Amino acid sequence: MSFFACLGGKKGKEERGEIMRRRETFLFLAVAVLFLYTGSAYAYRPVIDLGTLGGNSSEAYSINDSGQIVGRAHDSSGPQHACLFDPTGGGANIDLRGGSNSWAWSINDNGQIVGASDNRACLFDSTGNGNNKDLGTLSHDSDSRAFSINDNGQIVGCTSTGWEPFSRACLFDSTEGGANKDLGTLGGDSGQAWSINDGGQIVGYAVNNSGDFRACLFDPTGGGANRDLGTLGGTSSYAYSINDNGQIVGDAGGHACLFDPTGGGANTNLGILGGYISSASFINDVGQIVGRARDSSSNQRAYLFDPTGQGNNIDLNTLIAPTSGWTLIDAYCINNNGWIVGDGINAAGQIHAYLLIPEPTCAVLMIVGAVLLARRRNRR
Questions:
Q1: What is the layout of strands, in order, in the sheet containing 133-136?
Q2: Are 316 and 305 within 8 A, CB to CB?
Q3: What does the alpha-carbon distance between residue 241 and residue 228 come to, in Å, rounded to a whole number?
């Protein structure tokens, strides 16, 4: 009888399962060792300074899988404008020509860009020719913001009168037809929708009956069947990103958090950086999470979080050459290729948008590691 025949029954299946688990554990450990080795040799190519629009500061908020990047940048006269950045760092940035102040918060894989211009939600003309669309508000409001657009062109954000603190989560009518939808709250008076995935799932935060802000999975129909995603034991929480697999990140009680999408409370504390506060800004479809954290000296650092909650978090400043002159202070977005954008202090002491592109070996290891972590977690 062959070895494989001996593994044919229930006991054989258990033994095969054990062999697979051992093999997977070995691969996981190998990836961890290689990742640490790669990290020590700088896991990212030189930091790309994305520049400005002639002023002295900029921030990058979103990057799609084609490497298109949007955010905001100051011009030479002071105002901040929505900006489509030149990803090469060559300075051919496009002013998206909002009003006196504008922001571009999100770009989808079709190159559609949303944000706000002079306190109105806006669908920007990506050519910079100024054919921007005002997405309007809800009937009782005057101001609005658009925070996210998915690949189907669905747009979410919030509207308000006089802005904070009484805002309402909103699903915008991208045709400018005015059929914007109030997504409701959790019983309180305010809410904001921060992210929509390609399946139309929407997350953000809303006030509950006790007056606390809670991470929320919104009912996209506006019917009010909104789901409180809970906390990490405290009273408040906020959700900022949902990927196409339905994984949700944000923060709760000042700690970065991977939320249980069922609302069952099995939320994962993603930890801190020796300090007292952290927040997760974005999760890509591979399960990689970026954000920020304070260190023991209260200095803010851009961060790559361990999705298992085991604390193997990485300060992105340790993955770039110390001679670069950069201090990366925030990571707002990571695309499915592992490219990261955010803002930091460059060698000239200015806050500029940056782009990090992983070395090829590191990118493969990060993706394989994320997949293995997800498989291990799903088998528990």
A1: 102-107, 113-117, 120-124, 133-136
A2: no
A3: 15
Which ranges in 3-143 belong to alpha helices (H)?
3-6, 10-40
Q: Could you identify the residue written with the tokens 């308000």?
A: 160
233 phi, psi to nearest 5 deg:
110, -15
* Residues linked to residue 201 through DSSP beta bridges, in sequence order: none
Tokens of 263: 């609302």
The verdict on whether omega for the bond into residue 46 sits within 30 degrees of 0, i.e. cis, is: no
Report which residue type is found at 147. Answer: F
Residue 368 C-beta-side C-alpha neighbours within 13 Å: 18
CATH code of the domain occupying 44-360: 2.130.10.150
pTM for this model (two decimals): 0.85
Q: What are phi and psi of 371, to 5 degrees?
A: -65, -45
Rounded Cα–Cα distance for residues 295 and 284 (Å): 25
How far is the C-alpha of 167 from the C-alpha of 178, rounded, in Å?
18
Instruction: Report pLDDT digits (tens) over 260-284.
Output: 999 999 999 999 888 889 999 999 9
- Alpha-carbon distance 365 to 380, whole Å? 23
Q: Which of 207, 235, 334, 315 is nearest to 271 (CA)?
A: 315
